[in-house]
Design goal:
Layout (H helix, E strand, L loop, with lengths): L5 H4 L2 H8 L5 E4 L2 E4 H16 L9 H21 L2 H24 L3 H28 L15 E3 L2 E3 L7 H9 L2 H10 L3 H18 L2 H15 L7 H18 L19 H13 L1 H4 L20 H33 L6 H19 L8 H16 L21
Helix pairs in contact: 2-6, 3-5, 4-5, 4-14, 5-16, 6-9, 7-9, 7-10, 8-9, 8-15, 10-15, 14-15, 14-16, 15-16
Length: 411
């Protein structure tokens, strides 16, 4: 990160998060410095030394991200009123802003994204092998490095491999949200074989972690790719989907979000818990809308676990935190739309940009069933940083022919 060329420095964080546990850290006077936070500090030093902010442009999504963090920190600290709560949110905010702005500075164009995709594709191979081994033996090889259990978790007789990741679901979600990047390699890149192998590795990881949420993520990827031929009619598709959900909500005996309770791909899934969590959040709006709520344990059995990213924003940040989070997602999709509009339809860069949008859609889909922590948070803010870097600024001319350089955002 500190000394290599920029295109190689980009790969440092994926190496750390894919091969070490997020539980590993150095504690200095009560302040936790995980390996990711240490890497962020080194990255900022690198960016300062090499003056890599020279072509940085501040954009709307940057404002929304900061606004979301402020609206998440203030209610959380006010509700708890402790120094520990402030220090905790200070640490998480540093991690979010660090990952985001480090990659806003390091990623300049789509070639950097391709470089990142290649690195993750290579990393997926040993990780998939280790998780498959864990699935077969019940022993986690990464336990020798610390931070993860030696013996594999079991649910209803099925081993749930996690490798170096914070949880089996996080392992599956991490890799399934990278699947669109791997498909981009297989689709148009010269490293077609690597794309195919990394896609296979992703399926192995999803199988090994034995969780329904990553499988649902695979479905989201399929839906996103299937929409590519209909890309010029997406507005009609969105309106049709909204009309369908509204109709179902009217005709069903239960609310439309009850459909989540019926999802169970591997057996033993907690779809009903997800349904009850959403339902309780809606019914108890008066409890959390202002500053959030200290705990959701009193909402129902096991509802202390807010396994829903949207509900988690409401619980910890109140209505303001939830609204800013949704606005952040809207800005990200808007940025992808603006990027696509500057590119020649159906060329390789256009397809890769579409697949980045599919990755964003996959994240938003699995948010319904999991609240990110550990390594999953890193790839989420990394994707937002990629979108922020590639979104055209006002004075960048739209691509009018094949000779125009796309994706390069410079003064």
């Amino acid at each position: 990160m500190l000394t290599a060329k920029r295109k190689y420095a980009i790969l440092s964080v994926p190496l750390v998060i894919c091969l070490t546990s997020s539980a590993q850290r150095i504690v200095i006077y009560g302040l936790d410095f995980s390996f990711i936070r240490i890497m962020i500090c080194v990255a900022f030093l690198r960016i300062y030394i090499k003056k890599e902010t020279s072509d940085f442009h501040w954009k709307g999504i940057d404002n929304v991200l900061i606004g979301w963090i402020v609206c998440s920190v203030i209610p959380y600290v006010m509700l708890r009123g402790t120094l520990g709560a402030f220090v905790f949110k200070l640490g998480t905010s540093f991690e979010i802003l660090g990952i985001y702005f480090v990659y806003r500075c390091l990623i300049k164009d789509m070639n950097d994204v391709k470089q990142l995709a290649v690195a993750l594709a290579y990393l997926s191979i040993p990780v998939a092998i280790c998780l498959f081994y864990e699935k077969q033996t019940g022993r986690n090889l990464f336990s020798h490095l610390g931070g993860v259990p030696e013996f594999t978790l079991i649910r209803q007789g099925k081993l749930r491999a996690q490798g170096p990741f914070a949880h089996p679901i996080i392992a599956g979600v991490f890799w399934v949200t990278q699947l669109p990047l791997f498909i981009s390699l297989w689709w148009h890149d010269a490293k077609k074989w690597l794309g195919g192998v990394s896609v296979l590795a992703t399926f192995i990881v999803v199988y090994s972690c034995s969780s329904s949420t990553p499988i649902a993520g695979l479905g989201a990827v399929v839906v996103g790719i299937a929409c590519y031929p209909l890309r010029h009619n997406m507005k009609s598709i969105r309106l049709g989907l909204l009309a369908t959900l509204t109709t179902l909500h009217i005709v069903m005996k239960a609310p439309v979000w009850h459909l989540i309770s019926r999802i169970d791909f591997v057996g033993g899934s907690t779809g009903y818990h997800r349904y009850m969590l959403i339902d309780s959040a809606i019914r108890r709006f008066s409890e959390w809308w202002l500053f959030g709520v200290r705990s959701t344990n009193h909402w129902g059995w096991f509802l202390l676990d807010t396994a829903n990213m949207y509900v988690d924003q409401a619980v910890n940040g109140g209505m303001a935190g939830l609204i800013f989070f949704i606005i952040l997602i809207i800005f990200a999709f808007k940025g992808m739309g603006e990027l696509l509009s500057t590119l020649k339809d159906s060329n390789s860069n256009y397809i890769l940009a579409w697949l980045l949008g599919v990755a964003l859609f996959t994240h938003c889909s699995v948010f319904i069933a999991v609240s990110y922590f550990g390594q999953a948070t890193v790839v989420w803010y990394l994707l937002l940083a990629i979108i922020g870097s590639l979104t055209p600024v006002g004075h960048i001319a739209r691509e009018s022919n094949e000779n125009v350089e796309p994706f390069v955002v410079k003064a």
